[in-house]
Amino acid sequence: MSTLSLKIRLFAMMALQLAVWGAWAPKLFPYMAMLGFSAGQQGLVGTCWGIASVVGIFFSNQFADRTFAAERFLAGSHLIGGLALLGVAFSQTFAPFFLCYLIYSLVYVPTLSVTNTVAFTHLPNPAEFGSVRSGGTVGWIMASWPFVFLLGAHADASQVRSIFIVAAVISFVMAAFSLTLPHTPPKTGEGIDKLAWRRALGLLRKPVVAVLFLVTFIDSVVHNGYFVLSDAFLTNRVGIAGNLSMVVLSLGQVAEILTMLVLGTVLARLGWRWTMIVGILGHAARFLAFSFLADSVPAIIAVQLLHGICYAFFFATVYIFVDEAFPKDVRSSGQGLFNLLILGLGNMVASFAFPALVSRLTGADGKVDYQAVFLVPAGLAALGAVLLLVAFRPQTHGPARPEEIA
After folding, report:
1. Are 359 and 73 in contact (CB under 8 A)?
2. Residue 406: what pLDDT?
3. Chain-centre distance for alpha carbon 65
4. How far apart are CA 322 and CA 263, in angstroms?
5. Beta carbons of 55 and 336 less than 8 angstroms apart
6. Cα(362)–Cα(232) distance, rounded to whole angstroms?
7. Which superkingdom (predicted)?
């Protein structure tokens, strides 16, 4: 297989992988509200990814990696995940919805790391991972477009449940496509450090790692809060049609592609600390715009472009920093440790906190005080930036080879 053919196949793998997620993520919480789920019930659904993240650390790293070929693991997981998504789509009450969504989460979350494993195993140059991973961003964007036609301007629950049906179809396609991927055999026990997780946790004793861990948790709550709050805000407050809101939100992913292209240059010039500060302040700026510019549709649409800065300048930079700052034999565990914050704990906290905040700031007339709501994540983002400014002191200015970041 030629290098170009391999990269195209891996690009398509990432596109399908993230399209499954992107099809339902923006409208999950508005849909649950349409079904009449309470803020607490919505929070419980949000914990599913946290549960799956913890289980995934041990299942995918300690069992699946040593038992299944990666491409077969992906095929089986996405087949089960697609069936679970259909269950979610046709569940109208909380108990079956929660159960089906939990099953989906348990089989989908580990595939995020497994697809990375497939890519890194077969790419001749790890520095090419960025161009392959951008396929995921493209997939997320493309998953938004079918809903222009599937949803009406004022879509109700019977229409919005199509987000899970579309995600299920993509999941089935990914299951079949996975079997065409290059063979990635299970890992043997040799050379696997069973104490790597303990050693990675031990690095939290270093002030620079501890500060970054705390700020990453704060920013992951803010980041996940954006997905909890933004779609309902766009449709209910700004007045954007329900079948266009996901397209508007996808503009952030377009910006993410462009921002990733300049990340290496920015890191070389600003260094670790200031690049991350700019990234986390992007969240603050976006939420302040949501608070004070909600009457300006053009401004709200334009501010979506800050998503690229929020993601690339903070989260992508964190992954790069961990890869350089952690010892080589615990880097994988270190990445998983920070992923637990981003996909798990931050998601769980945001899933409980922000629906409860919206409920508390909803008046007797049913209108939400979005100005007050968005000042909370804006303040959290500002706090994270201050912590980075005063307490984050990395030993190096930036990455050793910024030209390899793509």
Report:
1. no
2. 46
3. 22
4. 16
5. no
6. 13
7. Bacteria
